[in-house]
Amino acid sequence: QVQLVESGGGLVQAGGSLRLSCVAFGFPIGPYDMHWFRQAPGKERALVASISDSGITSYANSVKGRFTISRDEAKNTMYLQMNSLKPEDTAVYYCNAATAWGQGTQVTVSS
To answer: What is the pLDDT of residues 5-30, one digit of tens each?
Structure first.
């Protein structure tokens, strides 16, 4: 069964760091571009960062320089390292590959 499972969310003070993980089950991540999205209350889901199958990365302007996306094909896992967190980063974070979505992990940044 194809499945993505996120973990690593939580409550952190502004300026702090978190690392999100997204483990894939039922398929190898190697051939796929992968993405992190987030959805804040009352807002639409938005793309945060992407990593291609060859490792090329891209970021939303709002997180550039603070977030780092990476992947480990041996562990079939994608990561999002989030530093210098701001209250406006508060959202549910989702990972995505092709048509597969995770269940989301809550990130809350207090001021």
So the answer is: 999 999 999 999 999 999 999 999 99
Output b/e per residue, 76-106; b: 16+ Cβ within 10 A.
bbbbbebeebeeebbbbbbbbbeebbbebbe
CA distances from 22 to 51, 61, 110 (A): 13, 22, 24
Helix (H, G, I), strand (E, B), or coil: what is residue 5? strand
Q: Which of 31, 26, 37 is nearest to 4 (CA)?
A: 26
Whole-angstrom distance, CA of residue 54 vs CA of residue 40: 30
- Please list the ranges in the chain whose pLDDT falls under 70: none
Asked if 35 and 24 count as a contact pair (C-beta separation under 8 A), the reply is: no
